[in-house]
Write a structure and sequence with these properties.
This protein is of the alpha+beta class. Helix content is 25%, strand content 28%. It folds into two domains: 4-129, Gcn5-related N-acetyltransferase (GNAT) (Aminopeptidase), CATH 3.40.630.30; 133-258, Aminopeptidase, CATH 3.40.630. The protein is built from eleven helices and 14 strands.
């Protein structure tokens, strides 16, 4: 029986988890994986595709669809994630991308591609997003303007209908059940809504900001925001992808190199591509390079072969 391509459905998910997901990353629980592949908040019922051989799942590719308001226009997004094929079927892995190639009017993203996948995706028309990330270290001052108030949003979306825009209200409703924080920063009669996740990464653990509704207001109130996020927890600094900030500079912050991210779009600019509706917020993947990845990036091919082998064995 030839290898076949099939859609991921709720009935198929238990087999997908047992065959492909359970042992891939033990730190991610079954329910988190289910949200990445079977998510009622996203548009449509398409959670991705699997390759099967004789009824056995041998490959997978996750897709997370969403409808976003970009500069007053409704745009469809498709985030690709978790592309994995069993070693003996690697030659068939491109079959999983066939449905994606036909999405000409959809903005496609891959925010956590592996190094092996990047050349394939670029040949399919994907481009690289800016790799820089802005790091907000612990605040040097504990005090900030008393005119700033920060509220944690926890109530049903209807409760905030008068304060959040329709687009932000949809974002809040779709992400409210996920393990992330929703902050409403109020100052001078205006507000800024942001979504952030706690990323456990050893001594590099941090708060990762997925979305900012008002970048200038975020920058103007960065001290209060970073103090609020890091108060009473082990995560002492905040990270945001630099492309979300655009030309806005945040005081007392620095830029570093982050992980690769890819996109393909006809009508959405890179600055309008954030981490929402993706594995970054559902599975809590980081954009921050681990110390091993930073070491690889710095010394690369000049690293002695024996040292490269050791570094690879520790990942």
């Amino acid at each position: 029986m030839p290898v076949a391509l099939a859609k991921i459905t709720p009935d198929l998910f238990p087999d997908l988890y047992q065959e492909m997901l359970r042992d891939w990353n033990p730190a991610i629980g079954e329910e988190s994986w289910r949200r990445a592949f079977i998510n009622p908040a996203t548009s449509g019922d398409d959670g991705g595709y699997v390759l099967t051989d004789g009824g056995r799942i041998v490959g997978m590719l996750g897709t997370i669809f969403s409808q976003r308001q970009i500069n007053g226009h409704e745009r469809t997004f498709c985030n690709l994630h978790s592309w994995r094929v069993k070693p003996e079927y690697r030659g068939k892995g491109l079959l999983l991308l066939r449905p994606i190639q036909g999405l000409s009017d959809v903005t496609c993203t891959d925010l956590t591609p592996s190094h092996e996948i990047i050349p394939i995706m670029t040949r399919l028309g994907f481009s690289r997003l800016d790799r820089s990330a802005t790091v907000l270290p612990p605040s040097p001052w504990r005090r900030h303007s008393r005119d700033v108030t920060i509220q944690e949003l926890t109530e049903p979306a209807e409760h905030y209908r008068g304060e959040l825009s329709p687009a932000d209200l949809r974002i809040y409703e779709d992400h409210r059940s996920l393990d992330c924080r929703h902050l409403l920063v109020r100052t001078a009669g205006q507000s800024c809504y942001l979504v952030a996740s706690c990323i456990a990464q050893g001594w590099l653990s941090h708060w990762y900001v997925h979305y900012i509704s008002d970048v200038p207001r975020f920058a103007a109130n960065h001290l209060a925001i970073r103090a609020h996020l890091t108060r009473g927890c082990a995560q002492s600094f905040v990270v945001v992808d630099s492309r979300l900030l655009g030309e806005t500079r945040v005081p007392f912050a620095c830029r570093i190199r982050s992980t690769e991210k890819l996109y393909r779009s006809r009508d959405v600019a890179p600055r309008d591509i954030d981490g929402l509706y993706s594995e970054q917020v559902i599975l809590k993947h980081s954009s921050l390079l681990s110390w091993r990845m930073q070491l690889h990036a710095r010394i690369g091919r000049h690293t002695p072969h024996a040292v490269r082998r050791f570094l690879q064995s520790t990942q």
